[in-house]
Amino acid sequence: MGLGYPDMRNLHITIEDDRAIEKYREEWDLLLEQCTEPSFFSTREWLKSWISAFSPSKTTEICVAKDGGEVVGIMPFNYYRNPWHDLFCFSTDLGFGNEADYNIPLIKQGTEDAVFGEMLDAIVQRVGKKGIFTFDKIPVGSKWLEVGRKWLMQNAGAIQEKTSVCPRLKFEPTYEAMEKKWKGNHRTDIRRQLRRLNEIGELHLKVVDSLDEFEAVISSFITVFMEKWQAEGKKKTVLDDKRVRNFYRYLGKSLIGNGLHLSYLSCRDSIVSYHFGFLHKGWLYYYKPTYLKEFQKYSPGKVHIALLVQEGIQKGWQGIDFLQGSEPYKYQWTREQIETPRITAVLGWNKLGFRWKTAWKKALWNKMKENNRR
Questions:
Q1: What is the pTM of this model?
Q2: What is the pLDDT of residue 5?
């Protein structure tokens, strides 16, 4: 099943359980520095928190590549049996969990062609050439993406590729220069809403910096998030899932002062806007925002982002990554984006499960919604 890339003579691949996260602690962190496109979602802390929250429903193992005694590649993968509404088909997902916005393998720069295909071979040998195989959220232009495509062309029975995007705001040297990049009505509205909020009470942007404060703020963040979505008519939100709520708490406890960026905007005696995200390699990952519904007319989320931009420029950050999704508000701030394909393939006989997950399920759901509107 190999791709025919030049062999690394001493390359050895092993599949290990999640204890590999600590076993290869130093090597993991070193690869984060050595790989071409380091991402916060590839960190040990992210994966450990994700496994703690979600592992009962999925099995997570880690593919480790060594060249002699040197670790040159690390790639987690998850495999599981789908529930009845996905026809009980077997699935293998490459990466750091569904909640990650980028799935970037940790492979030493310059060895990607020789290593990644062999790692994919080893993963399939472990789980069996069966069911649905997915890897997604790998940025366009990444060497791993091209290697993965070639590997799938050789091994998959059917392939579907869809592309999502991550809008990204690269900072200018000053906030004034940054403002000039935005449309006039956007600049005007930021200033107007800043003035209106300050008339109610002095605005303060605060970043959580202690575990005690985190516990208090994350609880109110979850409550406000769920109440806002319910007020907008959403019957269910992502935070209705206890596993997701636990995941956020695990992340906070392991990353306070070391990557977590949980900020809130207070006005008078109320917190009017929250952002749960991460700061990594000078990029603020804009992961999960929410705001107090009663303050919606003051655009607290927009004001919050503007103040984060000011703070980031002052502190020398590179920019804000708005992560997955093409929501219109993101394009008020930037026109730049990173494309991240999602590739789904069938490796065995279950083409019925593949067609269901990639086409028929969505078509049936859309048909049901259309009938309900009539």
A1: 0.90
A2: 44
